[in-house]
Structure formats: C-alpha cells, structure tokens
Amino acid sequence: MKPLDLQGQPSQWDAYAEQLRVKLPAAPEALLAGYVRWMPWVALVFGVLSVVLLLFFGLLGVVMAPVLAIFGGAAGIHGIVDFFFVVVIGLVLSGLDVAGGWMMRQRRLTGWWLLAIGLVIGAISDVLHLALFSLLVTLVIAYIHLQVKPRYS
After folding, report:
1. Is the pLDDT of residue 38 over 70?
2. How far apart (Å, rounded) are the C-alpha atoms in residues 137 and 30?
3. Backbone phi, then psi, for 9, in 5-degree steps?
4. Residues in Cβ contact with 57 at an 8 Å cutoff, skipping those fewer than 6 apart
5. What is the pTM of this model?
C-alpha cells in the first residue's frame, strides 16, 4: 500500500524517493538485508541513549543557566540560548530515531520516512557545520536507506 496524501493521491515525496532510488546503482543484497535487519535496532538503541543524555545535559544546563547569565553577561545568555536550541533539536532527532526504528522493526513505511527525515536534517547540519567526513557517512547511510525503501509498506 502506497502512502496517500490528504486528497487520497499517492504521495509526491514517495514518487521523488522512488525516482531517485531507480536512478542510483543497486547496492549489494547482503548489505541491504543486513541494513533492514540491524538498522532499526541501531536507531532504537542510539535514539534512547541520546534522549537520556540530552535530558541529563538539558537539566544540567537549566542548573547552570543562571550562573552563565549572571557571570557571562550577553555572551552567557547567547550561549544558553544556543545550548538549549541544540538540546531541543537533538531531542527531536532522537525521538525520530526511536519512533522510526520501532516502526521499521514492524516494516512500516512511516518508520522508513521518519529515519529518512532524520538523515536529511543530519545532512543539512553537516553542510552548515562544514563536517565533510560526517556528511560523507550520512550520504552513504542515506544511499543504503533509499535502496531498502521497497521492503517497507
């Protein structure tokens, strides 16, 4: 069953992903089978660990925020805002990993899309931070992720 938009038509994003998947060279079958088997678990484990660590550091930031605001002045306040922005974005991405990993274990296309959204956001972040090696790793994972899309419904 193909995902449908609000008007009952096949999703345009689904069509874009399928066109890109068909244009790319096929990955080895063993690699795809391993990805389908293990990636949901990797997403779940690292997603949960990330949520726990981000909550811990977020609480630590709440405790340290007044100290930074008092002794850091405007720069301290700017640092606090940046820190909490990173924590909130990290929690959202970790939540996508946990939900996507759980749904991918059930072979649901929604889980595939949740992890795909996380990969896109990660790639954009890598570009903005000029993290070339991280971008390369993200693109390789995204390539494999795109290749396994037909295995999810």
Report:
1. yes
2. 19
3. -95, 155
4. 87
5. 0.81
C-alpha to C-alpha distances, 10 to 108, 132, 147, 153, nearest whole angstrom: 16, 35, 19, 13
Query: What's the one-letter identity of residue 129?
Result: H
CA distances from 83 to 8, 32, 80, 118, 119 (A): 41, 37, 5, 20, 22
Tokens read off for 35: 């990805």
CA dist 43 → 35, 50, 59, 103 (Å): 11, 10, 24, 11
Q: Looking at residue 61, what DSSP letter applies?
A: H
What tokens does 84 get? 């909490």
CA–CA dist 1, 124 (Å, integer): 30
The rounded percent of the chain whose pLDDT value lies above 90 is 58
Angle at 6 between CA 89 and CA 1, to 5 degrees: 90
What is the spatial distance between Cα 100 and Cα 110, in angstroms, rounded to a whole number?
A: 7
- The Cα-based distances of 101 to 8, 47, 66, 113 in angstroms read 26, 9, 37, 10
pLDDT in tens, 120-150: 998 998 999 899 999 999 999 999 999 999 8
Measured CA angle at 143 (ends 141, 149), to 5 deg: 100
How far apart, in whole angstroms, are the C-alpha atoms of residue 138 and residue 129?
14
